[in-house]
Amino acid sequence: MSILEVREVSVRFGGHMAVDSASLTVEQGSITGLIGPNGAGKTTLFNVITGLQSTTQGRVLLGGNDITKAPAHQRARAGISRTFQRLELFGTLSVFDNVRVAAELNRSKEQTAEAATAAILDGVGLTDLAGQRADSLSTGNARLVELARALACRPRVLLLDEPASGLDDAETAVFSDTLRGLAERGLAILLVEHDVPMVMALCSSITVLNFGSVIACGTPEQVQNDQAVIEAYLGQGTDVEVGA
C-alpha cells in the first residue's frame, strides 16, 4: 500500500529547474531508494516532501491526503521524519538525552518519553551506549543515534539522506540490518544514498534522478541494467550483487 506519493513535482530556482516533473511512490513496510549524480535534485525533492521547499508545480500525498501546502511542522506531526547529510547531534548530551529530546516532543499518552527512548535505543542496539556523550561516538554509532532520534518522532515515513556517509563496511552492515528490521515492522523508508551496493541490497524499488528528472524507476535488477542509468550514474562494468 502506498503511504507517500510524489506526483509530477517541479521546483524552479530562477532559470534553473532543480526538479522537473518528478514522481515517486513509497510503499508501507518497504525501503525505496532515490539515487543519482550529485546535483540531480535528490535533496531538493526531500525538502519538498518534508515541507522545507515549496513546489513550482505538482503534489505530495501522505496516506492519500494532499499535504502539498502543509508547513513542515504539520507534516512532521502527520508522520514524516528525516535525517540530514551532515550529522546534527547535541554533542554534549548523552545518547539517551539526544533521543529523549525528540521523544518529549512526540510522546503519547500510553508511554512516557523515558520509556519510549529506552525502547527505541534497544531497537537500534544502543542501550549500552545510552549514557555516553554523543560527541564521543564513532560515526557509525552517531548515525544510529540520529536514526533513533528520527524514530522518536513516531514516523509513518522515514527519509534518510546519505545515512551511510562516513561509515566503514562493518558499520554499514549494522545500519543496513537495522533498516531492514524497521521495514519488516511496517515502517516506510525513502533512502538517498551513494553507496550503490547498499542501495541495491536494501531497496525493493529504486527511482533514479538526473538533472532533476526521473530517468528510471523499478527493481534493483531493472535499474542496474538500465542503459540510461548506466550512462548517467552507475557507469559501465557495474556489477552489484542484488539482494545481498
What key phrases describe this protein's structure?
244 residues, alpha/beta, Rossmann fold, six-stranded mixed β-sheet, four-stranded antiparallel β-sheet, 10 strands, 36% helix, disordered C terminus
Structural notes for this entry:
- The protein has 244 residues and is an alpha/beta fold.
- The protein has 2 domains: 169 residues, P-loop containing nucleotide triphosphate hydrolases (Rossmann fold, 3-Layer(aba) Sandwich); 66 residues, no CATH class.
- It is 36% helix and 25% strand.
- The chain is built from 9 helices and 10 strands.
- It has a 6-stranded mixed sheet, sandwiched between helices. Strands 2-1-4-5 form a 4-stranded antiparallel sheet, covered by helices on one side.
- Strand 7, helix 6 and strand 8 form a beta-alpha-beta unit.
- Helix 3 packs across helix 4.
- The C terminus is likely disordered.
